[in-house]
Specification:
The chain is of the alpha/beta class and 604 residues long. Among the domains are: 45-164, no CATH class; 227-372 and 462-602, 3-Layer(aba) Sandwich (Rossmann fold), CATH 3.40.50.1820. It has helices at residues 27-40, 45-60, 63-85, 117-134, 143-159, 170-179, 182-194, 274-280, 302-321, 332-344, 348-351, 383-396, 401-411, 413-426, 435-441, 448-460, 498-501, 504-507, 551-557, 566-575, and strands at 227-232, 236-241, 247-248, 253-256, 285-290, 325-330, 359-365, 398-399, 446-447, 470-471, 474-475, 485-490, 512-517, 535-538, 559-562, 582-583. The strands form four sheets. It has a ten-stranded mixed sheet, with helices on both faces. The chain has a two-stranded antiparallel ribbon with strand order 3-16. A two-stranded antiparallel sheet has the order 8-9. Helix 8 (274-280) links the parallel strand 4 (253-256) and strand 5 (285-290). Residues 1-21 and 199-213 have low confidence and may be disordered.
Length: 604
């Protein structure tokens, strides 16, 4: 049967060259660099060294900058004797710490206001601000190197923050005194458990000897929305969800999640499942579940993710429903969707070679289309860094999910590393498990060829925004898109910064509804109705300018709405749909491909 057919790939070789212009280099060079990557956690030492040399050389020929830094240092030094003998809060000498930095969450405990802890925190913040000043606005230095040096300086300073040391942290000292040291015993139990050593007798709370982070299993605890797998090939399973209403909107929804994560971020627990929300609102929902590739899939490239992924799913949804499709893309799935839609917007003779599907609307959730400002991920995006990553993937055939998770830990080490150490190991307070945490630990792999291609063409060279990207030999441009678009950015997104997401307004002439949701890259999207403290910003149509508005201008004019943005999105989807609803379409029972969540999502 067509939908049971699995594509056959050529037998891969351990030493291989990518075809065309994607040549990774000499195998001997790749072998050496892959070994270096094992010792540096995939970080290019050359990239780091070049950034520091760039900073040091330009700072050396900037005497005015040096004088300003010396003046700031001397002011900080002159305040120190006063702080050692009196409360800095009562000191009349002005502090150089930015007021925003004084709200650092590491020092919010009341104990940090007391001497001598206030001296330590204030001194640390002053040095942090001094280094921030030293590593920014150095005349002549490249913007990328400036960011790298600033980031590394910040990471090194975070290591020596007084909040990290139990004998310097008033909160830890207070807790230790109150519990008689039981917090430290519990913290040791948590540390042993995190490192694979569990002792039921060690620890003082009910969590000792048990898993602090019980895994939520897809199909048992999460990904519970009923549905069937209606199509499968080597790369995807296509899930059609069972309708929850007697009648539905005629146009179905196809959701394209990112391939760097498991799809059930959009179908978590029943109360926060976006998929369940949509089917309960009367939509027929299809969703792509990407396969978790292994070494044998090293030669899968971006063209496979288009042909066997997006276009195959669009074709199958069309054959089932015979209707135009509301398309939804999350994170890199949204990037893939926008690129595929641009290819489908070409002349009919060219599009016929891709798919006969028709797109009714496009919704992009935390998805970038312009990568000139990729946020903190830009730290790892330069030629030297990508050559190191290429070598690392070339050696094993894929990028392991744990390696990618380690990169995100580096990017957000203050919250994911140091705060965890203080909270769990020093205060002895276990982190309450939840579905989102478990999903985040359910990592995926990425094929060598595909990962190398999208990093180079999108993140490094920004080929999509600059009109150089081709799909199946067709040059694409987002200006060819004219279908309505609903675009969501999130306020605290370190993966897809909202101002970067907002650039879709520059790249297309399509009507765009833009929403800025509270939260980060994941929690801002999984923002179900009823969730406490959720809000979003939106600019009503009557307030919009007929010409382009800069992000800050939009932000100043936007209204803040309390609650979930899902309802606004649902109303927008309804407006883009046919007015007359039709009888609900149930998944076929005779395909024998299994029920949701399918088999690909279970691959480890």
């Amino acid at each position: 049967m067509k939908n049971e057919k699995i594509s056959i790939l050529n037998e891969p070789h351990h030493i291989c060259y990518l075809t065309g212009d994607e040549t990774p280099g000499n195998p001997l060079d790749m072998a050496l660099q892959s070994q270096i990557a094992k010792f540096t956690a995939g970080i290019s030492p050359n990239s780091i060294a070049l950034a520091w040399v760039d900073w040091a050389m330009h700072l050396a020929i900037s005497p005015g900058k040096q004088m300003d830094l010396m003046e700031n240092f001397q002011k900080n030094l002159s305040r120190l004797p006063f702080s050692l003998f009196e409360n800095p809060a009562e000191n009349t000498v002005a502090s150089s710490v930015d007021p925003a930095q004084e709200k650092d969450m590491r020092f919010v405990h009341p104990g940090w206001k007391n001497w001598p802890f206030n001296v330590m925190s204030k001194t640390f913040l002053e040095h942090q601000q001094l280094w921030r000043t030293a590593t920014t606005d150095v005349r002549g230095m490249s913007a990328h190197h400036e960011y790298v040096v600033n980031f590394i300086a910040r990471q090194l300073l975070d290591i020596v923050s007084p909040s990290n040391f139990p004998w310097l942290n008033p909160e830890v000292l207070e807790t230790t005194a109150e519990t008689g040291g039981k917090n430290l015993v519990s913290g040791m139990a948590h540390w042993l458990e995190d490192n694979g050593i569990g002792f039921a007798t060690l620890g003082t709370d009910s969590h000792a000897g048990q898993s602090k982070h019980p895994r939520y299993q897809p199909g048992q605890d999460v990904a519970l929305t009923p549905g069937k797998v209606v199509f499968r090939n080597h790369l995807i399973e296509l899930i059609q969800y069972s309708p929850q209403t007697a009648k539905v909107f005629a146009e179905p929804i196809l959701i394209v999640p990112s391939w760097i994560l498991k799809y059930y971020i959009l179908d978590l627990s029943p109360h926060n499942s976006m998929v369940r929300f949509l089917v309960e609102q009367g939509f027929t929902v299809f969703l792509i579940s990407w396969r978790n590739p292994g070494e044998q899939d090293r030669d899968l490239g971006m063209h496979d993710y288009f042909d066997q992924g997006l276009f195959a799913a669009l074709t199958e949804v069309t054959s089932i429903t015979h209707q135009p499709i509301h398309t939804v893309g999350y994170c890199l799935g949204g990037t893939l969707l926008s690129m595929g839609a641009a290819a489908m917007a070409k002349e009919p003779t060219q599009v016929a070679k891709i798919t006969t599907a028709k797109i009714q609307s496009i919704s992009l959730l935390a998805a970038q289309t312009d990568f000139s400002e990729p946020g903190e991920l830009g730290l790892f995006i330069d030629e030297s860094q990508l050559s190191m990553l290429d070598a690392q993937m070339w050696d094993q055939g894929y990028l392991d999910g744990k390696q990618m998770a380690g990169s995100f830990q580096i990017l957000n080490s203050r919250d994911l590393v140091w705060s965890k150490i203080m909270r769990e190991y020093q205060l002895g307070a276990p982190t309450a498990p939840n579905d989102l945490m478990s999903w985040n630990a359910d990592t995926t792999r990425m094929p060598y060829r595909m990962h190398s291609e999208y990093l180079k063409h999108l993140f490094l060279h920004n080929d999509l925004a600059e009109g150089r990207y081709e799909i199946n030999g067709i040059a694409i441009a987002l200006t060819d898109l004219h279908v309505p678009m609903f675009v969501v950015g999130t306020v605290r997104d370190h993966v897809s910064p909202w101002r970067s997401v907002y650039k879709i307004n520059l790249l297309t002439d399509a009507p765009v509804e833009f929403v800025l949701a509270s939260g980060g890259h994941n929690a801002g999207i999984v923002s179900e109705p009823g969730h406490a403290r959720r809000s979003y910003q939106y600019l009503p149509e009557e307030k919009r300018s007929k010409t382009y508005s800069a992000p800050e201008t939009w932000l100043q004019a936007a209204s803040t709405e309390q609650g979930s943005w899902w309802y606004r999105w649902q109303r927008w989807l309804a407006q883009q749909s046919s007015p007359n609803q039709v009888k609900a379409l149930h998944p076929r029972e005779d395909l024998h491909l299994g029920s949701a969540p399918g088999s690909y999502v279970l691959e480890k």
